[in-house]
């Protein structure tokens, strides 16, 4: 074969290579344009479709591929110190922990089991100074301040504070007397059980009746029985007066 034959054989090969290269370039450009279209938003794809650059079916397929890509996306953190990426498809809760910080445990010793059970006797002994020293001193101070005060409003305020302190002292004394009486009653019952008597659980009504008897004897011994009885009668009369007809009230 001559020189001309060699050139004629090489031309189809070069033409085939050029055609093959053009096919690769076309496919690469098509894939790039497809990737660019997939990266477009819905508004951009809609504008492109209206301009004639994208058909309705192509837009639907692109949207479907984007949805599948979004569903397959993982929202795991690459590093534990980074905040977790959340999907925009779900509503954000109102109270959301943005930064995961160490929580401080706060406890109330009044309601915590670590504090142990309440020991009433020990508690009263530890805080007995409040009723034996602090409140009586506050009572005397309020009395002296009340005598020196001249304003009516200030006097009413000091008198209310003094009444409250006196009630606290009186209630504590009543509690102590009641506890002492119950402790004495339990001691007698224990001695009776040791002597051979059967175990006896007192009824609530009987306990209340004995409490009234004890209080009556105590008031009688201190000389305050007549004053308390007069106050009680006045209170009961005021209660009964509510049930009296209005005509009889005016006549009286």
Please explain how this structure is put together.
It is a single chain. This protein is mainly alpha-helical and 252 residues long. Among the domains are: 12-67, no CATH class; 121-201. It has 9 helices and no strands. The protein has helices spanning 3-39, 42-50, 56-71, 120-126, 128-148, 152-194, 204-222, 225-241, 246-251. Helix 5 (128-148) packs antiparallel against helix 6. The longest helix is centred in the last third of the chain and has 43 residues, at 152-194. The chain is elongated, with a radius of gyration of 48 Å. The termini are far apart. Mean pLDDT is 76; it is low at 1-37.
Radius of gyration, taken over Cα atoms and rounded to an integer in Å: 48 Å
Average pLDDT level: 76
The CA-CA distance between the termini, in Å, is 153 Å
Supply the helix-strand structural class: mainly alpha
What's the main sheet like? Answer: none
Q: How many H/I helical runs?
A: 9
Secondary structure elements and their pairing?
Blueprint: H1 3-39, H2 42-50, H3 56-71, H4 120-126, H5 128-148, H6 152-194, H7 204-222, H8 225-241, H9 246-251
Helix pairs in contact: 5-6
State the gist of this model.
InterPro entries: RRP36. It is found in: Nucleus, Nucleolus. By secondary structure, this protein is mainly α.
């Amino acid at each position: 074969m001559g020189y001309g034959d060699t050139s004629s054989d090489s031309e189809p090969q070069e033409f085939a290579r050029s055609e093959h290269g053009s096919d690769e370039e076309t496919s690469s450009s098509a894939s790039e344009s497809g990737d660019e279209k997939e990266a477009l938003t819905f508004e951009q794809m809609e504008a492109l479709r209206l301009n004639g650059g994208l058909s309705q079916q192509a837009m639907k397929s692109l949207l479907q591929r984007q949805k599948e890509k979004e569903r397959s996306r993982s929202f795991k953190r690459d590093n534990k110190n980074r905040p977790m990426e959340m999907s925009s498809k779900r509503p954000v809760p109102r109270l959301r922990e943005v930064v995961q910080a160490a929580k401080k445990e706060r406890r109330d010793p009044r309601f915590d089991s670590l504090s142990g059970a309440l020991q009433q006797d020990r508690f009263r002994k530890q805080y007995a100074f409040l009723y034996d020293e602090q409140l009586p001193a506050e009572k005397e101070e309020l009395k002296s301040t009340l005598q020196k005060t001249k304003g009516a409003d200030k006097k009413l305020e000091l008198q209310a504070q003094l009444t409250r302190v006196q009630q606290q002292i009186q209630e504590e004394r009543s509690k102590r007397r009641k506890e002492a009486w119950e402790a004495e009653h339990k001691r007698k019952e224990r001695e009776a059980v040791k002597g051979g008597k059967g175990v006896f659980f007192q009824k609530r009504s009987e306990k209340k009746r004995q409490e009234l008897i004890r209080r009556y004897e105590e008031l009688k011994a201190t000389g305050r029985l007549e004053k308390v009885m007069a106050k009680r009668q006045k209170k009961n009369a005021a209660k009964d007066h509510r049930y009296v007809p209005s005509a009889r009230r005016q006549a009286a």
